[in-house]
Each structure stands twice: as structure tokens, then as C-alpha cells.
Amino acid sequence: MEMNQVTTSIKMRRKRNGQINIKSGNKIDLVVKSTIWILSLLTILAFFFFNYSGLQLERAIPETWHNLRVMFLEPALNHFSWQEAAYQIGVTLGLGILATVFGAIIAFFLALMAAENLSKPWISKTVRIFVAFVRAVPTVLWVLIFAIAAGLGSEAAVLGMLFHSVAYLVKAFSEAFEEVDAGILEALRASGSKWWHVIVHGILPSTFTYLLSWTFLRFEINFSVAVAMGAAAGAGGIGFELFMASGFYFDLREVGFITYAILLIAIILEIMSTRLKNRYFPGQVTS
Amino acid sequence: MDEQKMRKGKWQATIFLLLIILMTYFASSITQFNLLESITTIPQAIGWMVANLFITSEAITKLPGIVEKLTETIFMSIAATTLAAVLSIALALLGSKTTKVNNFFSVLARFIASFSRNIPVVAWSLILLISFGQNSVTGFLALFVGTLGFLTRAFIETIDEASSSSVEALSATGATYFHIVNNAVIPQSLPQMLSWILFMIETNIRSATLVGILTGTGIGYMFDIYYKNLNYDVVALITLSIVIAVIIIELLSNKIRKVIL
């Protein structure tokens, strides 16, 4: 316990790469302060850039209040049945599972290429740049672009979501691989192991649980992404029903029911991932 | 003994893999997903992208409009994130173990955070769209609510991590609650908090596109219009401009993060 506290207090004075932070406090202070000032200024400016067409604030606020009350206090199903709702949630979960499982498999191999201790510098750089580009395009644009080529349906949705899952997991996985003890790799290599031998016997056993918990964290994100894809790209599932209920039928009670259903699943997933986090990487905030 | 352990581990891994395969199988049957078909569509899709998604001079003429919408979207994400951060600090102070006023407010703050975070931003935008209509305020509010939940959770963990010993020290000297918060908690966790805010701005610019498609605002709406008109060269230009904006903002915030952390 005592030991632990000492190490954490030392860690705090170190930078990410392990160097001791010897910068004077003033520079950090200055950057922090100026960033805050710039952000506040941009926030004030933002309100001049907004497009206010059709906004009636004095009407909208009480109306939202009323709508929220109807939604959350009188949820009901009018256009489809309980079974149908359960099925649609299943579809959304299914999209999330498929994108996560295939994403994790592809990310595993790409991460092997991206990890600096397992691959050549130029390969790792190329993969990283590719992944950064993929990540910069919003998921919904990937899905819509695939939808033209593959036709709208689960294929386009899964492929589009896959892109982002891969980009996210490659980063997490390759960081985990880079933390593997260099001694293990060296010992394996010295004994004449081939590259894949090193992976199977050195890398996999020591990072397996880590990779699994990252994958699960991504699944939690992919569930809400799947809801979004249903609504914005017509990929089906509960998100599409939500979109129909609010934009097509204007049925607030149904919107309320669907929101509760999504909330329930999301909270279950969150509890599971918090447990995983506390077990496998305590004291670390991950998103 | 070790061998037994290893064998047990192997068993567990096998069962686990089987479970995943089973789950994937169910998932693909419920969503009618066909792996082979989707693999064959990838080259087809890339071919389509190469053939159709290139930027013509005609698309370039739309650039001023695109830039205007893009700035609107960027400003929307920054404003939503910053204002949500201000409220999140208050909620996090109430919710954190080291600085909570009492248990009731702590639970309340955590509940608000969990509620606003776990309802996807899509649901918020659709809910707000009904009464606020198609304008930037709807998008702003949708991003605001989602950010609030996320930042509150991140800030609670930051405060818990950074300041328990200094809070104890200050309260031992008889400092008041506001003294403690002002002089110990905020200064210590500010760099970490700022890093989260920057991260959230990056994320929000990407989700602003999605919110824009749903609420008819900003760059997302513009994308949607040209997409539905099959005007793919403008679609390509819009996508490219989003990518450039996101990458610039990521590089900027990485630079700031490197200095402050």
C-alpha cells in the first residue's frame, strides 16, 4: 500500500514517455490559461454564427418540458408490439456484435503491424496514418458511402461501423502490445522462434485479457453507434424505429418507450464494462 | 499444478471462443448479415469510391458554402463542449467522493450524468427536434446533453484521482469548502480536465455530422442534401473538408496536451 502511493506520486511528476517533467510550472500554466480563454472566446463567438431560423425559444422551452414529461412518464407502444421491440433491439445488438467481433479480428492483425516492437518502422507509420484517416471520417459517412455501393442493409451498416471499430481498437491493441516485456520477446527470438511463434507464445498470453476488455468497451460504444446508424442511415433496428416514431408518427409515448429500452441496455453494458475496467485496468479512465 | 492451470485456461479459452462464434452466428442471422457477400462488396465499394468520389471543378464552386457550414459545425461543437464542461465541473464537484457536499447530491449528480450519457445523442437530437425545429440550437443542445454526461463522469474520476491528499491537508488547516475547491481541487485537476475537454471537442465534431443529418443543421445537413441528390463530387469535397478539419483539431489538441500533461 505504502509502496503504491510512492510510485503514483512519482508517476505524477513524469511525462507520458517516462521522462521527468522539468518544465517550469509557468509554461504549463500559461498554456492552460490561454486555452481556456480561447475556448471561452470561441464559445461566445459561436452564438453569432448560429443559424436561428425558425427558432421560437419562448415556445420551445415549455414545449420541450411538456414533451419530456409525456415521453418519460407515459411511455407506451402504439405502432409495434413488445416482441417486435425486443426483436429490433436484438437487431441493433447484433449489428454491434458483428462490427465488434470482425473489428477486433482485423484490428488484431493491423495492431501487430502498428506496434513498434513487432514490426518495421515504416509499416507501423503507414498503418497509423491510415488509421488516423479512417478515424477522421465520421462513422455515418462511411455507412452512407457503403450504402451506395453495397445497397442499404446490414452489410453497409456493419462495414461502416467496422471501419471505426478497427481504427479505435488498433490504437488500443498496439499500445498493449508495446507494453509487453521486451525480455520475453528477446528470449523467444533468441531461441529461434519465428515471428508468429513470438505472437502466439509471447504476445497473446500476456495481453489476452487486456484485448478482451478493450473489445468489450468498444462493444458498448458500438451499441450506441448502431442506434445512430439505424436512425441516420436507415440501417434498421431500434434506432430506425426511434427515427420513425419521432419523425414520422410524432408519437412521443413511443419515443419514450424506445428511449427507455435503449437506456436499459446501455446501463447494463456500462455496468459490465465498469466491472471489467476495475478488474483489468484500475485507476484509468477510458472512453 | 501449473499444467493443470494451463489446461483449465485452455478450456476456458475454447469455451469462450465457441461462445463468441455462436453469438456472431446469431447476430448475423438476426440482422441477415452475409459475411461472404459483404467481403465481395468491399472491392466493389472501393471501385465505386474511386470512380465517383473525386472532386470536380464544379464542386469547388460550392466550397464557400461548405466552409461556412463547416465553421458553423465546429463552433457548435466547441460551444457545446465548453458550456457543458462548466456545468460538468459543478456536477463533478458534487459527485466526487472527495468533494461531495452530501450523499444526496452526490447520487443525484451521478444519476444526471449517467442518464444524459446513456441516452444516445441520436435520441436527444430527435427529442429536441420535435420542439426546437431545424436550427443550430437543436444540434447544440443535443451535443451539450451528451457531452455533459460524459465529461461529468470523466471529471469525477479526475478529481478523485488527483486530490484526496491535498483536500485532507487543507481541511486539516481549517480551510472552507470553497477554499479547498479553489486552491487545491481545481488547480490540480485542471490540466487533466482540459485534456478531456479537448478530446470531447474532437469527438463532438465527428458526432456533429451525425446530429446535423438528423436535425438538419450544419455540415451534416449539407452532406445529406447532396447525398440524396446523387451529387457525389460535392459529397467527396464535403467529406474531405470534414477529414481535414478533424485532423487539424486533433493535431492542435495533441500539441496542447503534450505541453500540459
End-to-end gap of chain A: 28 Å
CATH architectural arrangement of the largest domain in chain B? Orthogonal Bundle
Mean pLDDT of chain A: 81
Strand content of chain B: under 5%
Q: Kindly give the count of domains of chain A.
A: 2
Residue runs with pLDDT of under 50 for 5 or more positions of chain A: 1-12, 283-287
CATH top level assignment of the largest domain in chain A = Mainly Alpha
Total helices of chain B: the number is 11
> Any idea what the CATH superfamily of the largest domain in chain A is called?
MetI-like
The dominant shape of chain A is globular
Query: Helix coverage percent of residues of chain B?
Result: over 70%
Number of strands of chain A: 0
Shape of chain B: globular
The value of Rg of chain B in angstroms is: 24 Å
Give the integer mean of the pLDDT values of chain B. 85
CATH class of the largest domain in chain B: Mainly Alpha
| Rg of chain A computed from alpha carbons, rounded to a whole number of angstroms | 24 Å
| Largest sheet properties of chain A | none
The span between the termini of chain B is 45 Å
User: Percentage of helical residues of chain A?
Assistant: over 70%
What does this structure look like?
Chain B: Belongs to the binding-protein-dependent transport system permease family. Chain B: Residues 70-253 form the ABC transmembrane type-1 domain. Chain B: It is a multi-pass membrane protein. The complex is a heterodimer of chains A (287) and B (261). Chain A is an all-alpha fold. Chain A has eleven helices and no strands. Chain A has two domains: 9-49; 79-280, MetI-like fold (Orthogonal Bundle), CATH 1.10.3720. In chain A, 79% of the residues lie in helices and 0% in strands. Chain B starts with a helix and ends with a helix. Chain B has 261 residues and is mainly alpha-helical. Chain B folds into two domains: 3-50, no CATH class; 56-260, Orthogonal Bundle (MetI-like fold). The mean pLDDT of chain B is 85. Chain B contains eleven helices and no strands. The interface between A and B is large, with 86 and 83 residues.
